[in-house]
TrEMBL record:
Keywords: Cell membrane, Disulfide bond, Ion transport, Membrane, Transmembrane, Transmembrane helix, Transport. The keyword Cytoplasm does not apply. Gene3D superfamilies: MFS general substrate transporter like domains. This is Solute carrier organic anion transporter family member. The keyword Magnesium does not apply. It comes from Mesocricetus auratus (Golden hamster). Its main location: membrane. Pfam families: Kazal_2, OATP. It is a multi-pass membrane protein. Belongs to the organo anion transporter (TC 2.A.60) family. The chain crosses the membrane at residues 21-41, 53-80, 87-109, 157-183, 204-222, 242-266, 317-339, 354-376, 512-536, 548-571, 600-623. The gene is LOC101832023.
Length: 670
C-alpha cells in the first residue's frame, strides 16, 4: 500500500523538478531584470529633466545599480551555492520589485512638474510678458530667492531614485551567478551552450519590451490626468518635455514580483539531466547522500574561499578575460547609457522616437545572434580554442565597422546668439555677449530663460522676446508670434514655438546609423556565446560560481560604477546652454555642442574597446598552448605532456579538472 504512493510522489516531483522548468523560470527572471534595467536607462533623460540635474548626477544614479550589486556579488556567488539557490533567486526578484516601486515614489511626493518659461511661474503677468516690450518693469525679471534655492536643494527627490536603483541592484545580484551555476550543475554539458543562449535571449526580449514601454511612456506627459495638456507650450521633441517615467517603474515592480513566485516551489538540487531515468536510488540512500553532502558543504563553507581566490588569480586566461571584459563593458555602458541623449541632440528627434527605433533596430539582431551562436556551439561541438578564435575575430570585425558612425553626423541646431549669429552665420563657441543684438536690445529681454521659437527664416531664437516679436496669436502649442524684428525673411517675420527641425538629410543619416547598428549588434552577439564559453571552461567546476561572480564584481567596480559618472562629467563640459531652476541656479542642460559631444561619445568608447583587443589576443595565444578536458582535437601524447606540465606549476592548477586531482574519474565540464 505504501509503495505505489511513494512512486507517484516521486514521479510528481521528478516531472516538476526537471532542469527545463528551472530554465523557464530563470528566463523569466532574466526578462524581468533586463526589462526594468533597460527601462531605467531609457528614462534617464526624463529623470534628468524632471529633477533638473546635470548629466554627472544622472551617471551617478545609473551607477548606483552597480553599487547595489557590488555589495553582495562575491558573497552571493560563493555562499549561494551552499544554500537554496532557487529561493535566493526568488527573493532577489521581490527585492528588485520593491526597488522599482521606490524609484516611482517621488512622483507621488513632489508637486507638479513646472518647466522653464519666458515668464516667471510665480508672477501673475499676462502672456505679453513673453514679447518684446521697451517699457518692461523689473517685476518681470525672476529674482533668485535664497530660501527657495535652499529648500529646492534640501528636497533632492532624485535621491529616492538613486536608492531605489541601488536596491534594485541588490535584488539582481543572485540571479545570474546562481542561475548559471545551477544550470551548469544539473544540465548535460553539450546542452549548456544552448541553455545559456536561451537565457541570453530572455535577457534581450526584456530590453526589447522595456524600450517599447519607455517609448510609450515618453509620449505621455508626466502629470497627465492632473493638468490640461492643451495648455502645454512644449511637445515631446522639446528638451524640457518630461514623459510619464513613473508609470513604467510601477509596471516593472509588478512584473518582478510575479516572476519570483515559481522559484519558491523549485527544489534545492536536481538529478543530472539525462541520468534521472537510468538511476534507481532508494529514499534512504538519497537521505544519506544528502546528509553527507550537507556536512561537506558546511565544513567547506569558508575554508575553501581563499584557496579558490588564489587559484583564480593564478589563472592567466581568467585574469586576462576579466581585463578584456572591463575595457569592453566600459565602452558599451557609455554608449548605451547616453545613447538617447546623443541621438536626440545629433538628429533632432524626440525621446520616444529614439527609444522606439533603438528597440526596433538593435535588439532583434542581438536576440537572433545569441540563439544562432548557442546552436552553432551545440551542433558543431566547438572547442575552447575555436571558440576563442571565433569570439576574437567577430568582435574585432564589429569594432572596425563601428567607425562608420563617424560618417552619419549632423550640425548643431541653428540658434541665434548660441550656435549662430543673428545673421545666420555659424559660430564655433558660445559667447554670452552675443545673446543680444541690435534688433532686440530695446526689448529688455531675459537672457537666462529657455523658451525657444523657430522663425520662418529657419533660424531659432532662445525666446520670443530675443526674436523681437511684438504680437502673439493662439494658445498653447499653437501660439504664433508676429512682427519679430530679428527675423529677416521674405515672409511676415513670424515664429512658432520650439526649435527648428533639422533637414531630411539628417533623418536619412539616422537610418544609416541604425542599419549599421543592426549589422554590428548581430556580429557582436554571435561572438558573445563563444566568448562566455572560454570564461566558463578555463576554471574548475567547484570554482565556477565564484569565478562568474568575481568576473561580474570586477565589471561593476571598474566599469558599471565609474563609467556613467566620469562620462556624464565629460558630457557636461560640452553643454552650450544650461536650464535655470526656480531659485536661479543652473539645472539640466538644454543644448550641447554636438561636434564636441560626438567626438567624446564615439571617441572614448572606441579607445577603450580598442585597447581591450591586446589582452584578448594574449588569451588566444594561451588557449592554443593548452589542452582542456574533453577535447580530442590534439594527439593523446600531447595531452599527457600538458597534464604533466600542469602538475609542475602551482598557478596553472586552475586549468585542471578537480576530479583528476582527487584521483577520481576525469569528467568533462562546461
Amino acid at each position: 500500500m505504501e509503495e505505489p504512493r511513494k512512486i507517484v510522489a516521486t514521479h510528481g516531483v521528478r516531472c516538476f523538478s526537471k532542469i527545463k522548468m528551472f530554465l523557464v523560470a530563470l528566463t523569466g527572471a532574466y526578462l524581468a531584470k533586463s526589462l526594468s534595467g533597460v527601462y531605467m536607462s531609457s528614462m534617464l533623460t526624463q529623470i534628468e529633466r524632471q529633477f533638473n540635474i546635470p548629466a554627472s548626477i544622472v551617471g551617478f544614479i545609473s551607477g548606483s545599480f552597480e553599487i547595489g550589486n557590488l555589495l553582495l556579488i562575491i558573497f552571493v556567488s560563493y555562499f549561494g551555492t551552499k544554500l537554496h539557490r532557487p529561493i535566493m533567486i526568488g527573493v532577489g526578484c521581490v527585492v528588485m520589485g520593491l526597488g522599482c516601486f521606490l524609484i516611482s515614489l517621488p512622483h507621488f511626493l513632489m508637486g507638479r512638474y513646472e518647466y522653464e518659461k519666458a515668464i516667471s511661474p510665480s508672477s501673475n503677468l499676462s502672456s505679453n510678458s513673453l514679447l518684446c516690450s521697451g517699457n518692461r518693469t523689473e517685476t518681470s525679471m525672476p529674482t533668485p530667492d535664497p530660501a527657495e534655492c535652499e529648500k529646492e536643494i534640501k528636497s533632492s527627490m532624485w535621491i529616492y531614485v538613486m536608492v531605489g536603483n541601488l536596491i534594485r541592484g541588490i535584488g539582481e545580484t543572485p540571479i545570474m551567478p546562481l542561475g548559471i551555476s545551477y544550470i551548469d550543475d544539473f544540465a548535460k554539458s553539450e546542452n549548456s551552450p544552448l541553455y545559456i543562449g536561451i537565457l541570453e535571449t530572455g535577457k534581450i526580449l526584456g530590453p526589447l519590451i522595456g524600450l517599447f514601454l519607455a517609448s510609450f511612456c515618453a509620449t505621455i506627459y508626466v502629470d497627465t490626468g492632473s493638468v490640461n495638456t492643451e495648455d502645454l507650450t512644449i511637445t515631446p521633441t522639446d528638451t524640457r518635455w518630461v514623459g510619464a517615467w513613473w508609470v513604467g517603474f510601477l509596471i516593472c515592480a509588478g512584473v518582478n514580483i510575479l516572476i519570483s513566485i515559481p522559484f519558491f516551489f523549485l527544489p534545492k538540487t536536481l538529478p543530472k539531466n539525462g541520468l534521472e531515468d537510468n538511476m534507481v536510488v532508494t529514499k534512504s540512500d538519497k537521505e544519506e547522500k544528502h546528509q553527507e553532502k550537507a556536512k561537506k558543504e558546511k565544513r567547506g563553507l569558508t575554508k575553501d574561499f581563499l584557496p579558490y581566490m588564489k587559484s583564480l588569480s593564478c589563472n592567466p586566461i581568467y585574469m586576462l578575460f576579466i581585463l578584456t571584459s572591463v575595457l569592453q563593458i566600459n565602452g558599451f555602458i557609455i554608449l548605451f547609457t547616453f545613447m538617447t541623449k546623443y541621438l536626440e541632440q545629433q538628429y533632432g528627434k524626440s525621446t520616444a522616437e529614439i527609444i522606439f527605433l533603438t528597440g526596433l533596430y538593435s535588439f532583434p539582431p542581438i536576440c537572433i545572434g545569441y540563439l544562432v551562436g548557442g546552436l552553432i556551439m551545440k551542433k558543431f561541438k566547438i572547442t575552447v580554442k575555436r571558440a576563442a578564435y571565433i569570439a576574437f575575430c567577430l568582435s574585432l570585425t564589429e569594432y572596425l565597422l563601428s567607425f562608420f558612425n563617424y560618417m552619419w553626423t549632423c550640425d548643431d541646431f541653428p540658434v541665434a546668439g548660441l550656435t549662430t549669429s543673428y545673421e545666420g552665420i555659424q559660430q564655433p563657441l558660445y559667447m554670452e555677449n552675443q545673446f543680444l543684438d541690435d534688433c532686440n536690445t530695446r526689448c529688455n529681454c531675459l537672457t537666462k530663460t529657455w523658451d525657444p521659437v523657430c522663425g520662418d527664416n529657419g533660424l531659432a531664437y532662445m525666446s520670443p522676446c530675443l526674436a523681437g516679436c511684438e504680437k502673439s496669436v493662439g494658445t498653447g502649442i499653437n501660439t504664433v508670434f508676429h512682427n519679430c524684428s530679428c527675423i529677416w525673411s521674405s515672409g511676415n517675420s513670424s515664429a512658432v514655438l520650439g526649435l527648428c527641425k533639422k533637414g531630411p538629410d539628417c533623418t536619412i543619416k539616422l537610418q544609416y546609423y541604425f542599419i549599421m547598428s543592426v549589422i554590428g549588434c548581430f556580429i557582436y552577439s554571435l561572438a558573445a556565446i563563444p566568448g562566455y564559453m572560454v570564461l566558463l571552461r578555463c576554471i574548475k567546476s567547484e570554482e565556477k560560481s565564484l569565478g562568474v561572480g568575481l568576473h561580474a564584481f570586477c565589471i561593476r567596480v571598474f566599469a558599471g560604477i565609474p563609467a556613467p559618472v566620469y562620462f556624464g562629467a565629460l558630457i557636461d563640459r560640452t553643454c552650450l546652454y544650461w536650464g535655470t531652476q526656480k531659485c536661479g541656479e543652473p539645472g539640466a542642460c538644454r543644448m550641447y555642442d554636438i561636434h564636441n559631444f560626438r567626438r567624446i561619445y564615439l571617441g572614448v568608447p572606441a579607445a577603450l574597446r580598442g585597447s581591450s583587443y591586446l589582452p584578448a589576443f594574449f588569451i588566444v595565444l594561451l588557449v592554443r598552448k593548452l589542452q582542456f578536458p574533453g577535447e580530442v582535437d590534439s594527439p593523446k601524447p600531447k595531452v599527457a605532456k600538458v597534464k604533466l606540465t600542469e602538475k609542475e606549476s602551482e598557478c596553472m592548477v586552475a586549468l585542471r579538472s578537480p576530479e583528476f586531482e582527487n584521483g577520481k574519474e576525469l569528467k568533462t565540464k562546461l
